[in-house]
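tool=predict chain=A
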Amino acid sequence: MLNSSGESIFKHAVFAVTNGISALVCLLVAILVLCLKLYKKLVYRLALYQVLSGLALAVVGAMQVVFVNYDRSPKIYGHVCNIMGLSVVYTEWMKLLFTMWVTFHLFCFAVLHKNLKKLEVLYVVTSLLVPALIAIVPLVTHAYGLSSDGDVCNIYANTSVAFIERLALWDGPAMLMLIAASTAMFVMVIKLASQVRQRSQYESITDGDQYKKALKQLLPLAAFPLLFFIFEIPVLVYHVYTTQHSVPNEGMLIAVAVYVAGNIPN
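tool=predict ok
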């Protein structure tokens, strides 16, 4: 059995390693997109923005390791926690919004047959500014703080009020948006698959091959919101658990840390 200090070091090591791996994966994907010049297409450029926001989130997550020494200087680390919490919420929302814009653009292109290239500036501006407005709210209401076991900083649901604020500022909107995005991607894939079959039967082989090629290119991007949604469920469960139990579940916390880190590259 580890003592409390040993447990804290172990958990911070888990956070640092898992987020470090996620950051490395995001960096490699970004380099690959740049090397293959996929960024010339808007949809891949949006996906690149999403990966870069995931890279920022992973770096912020890895930096939570600084709180391993929180007990030595609570006053100083309290201020650091506000900055860290704001950074976490900002990067989480930035990643979510870029994911939503990728979904929106793909759906409009594949289902509604509308190419919205002119909206790229809107996609980028909203994904950078809206998270800032949301992240400031917990700072003003003093909702940022360490988790109940004093390991990581965020909007932590250690009280009913904090739980409601986190539910309103992240868990609730994130779940609703990801459910909508996953549904949209499901509809898009079904429609594209149907079009591939129809084109293959009634038009030239070349046309059918073009639709098959489009389907193969879009399917990996369609997985973004679905995987994001799946990985977000354990996080919400853990936040509900911390509201009902004063003693944190160490195994659940570590599992959530791994889940969150696994979700970052998606």
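The mean pLDDT is 76. The longest strand covers residues 144-146.
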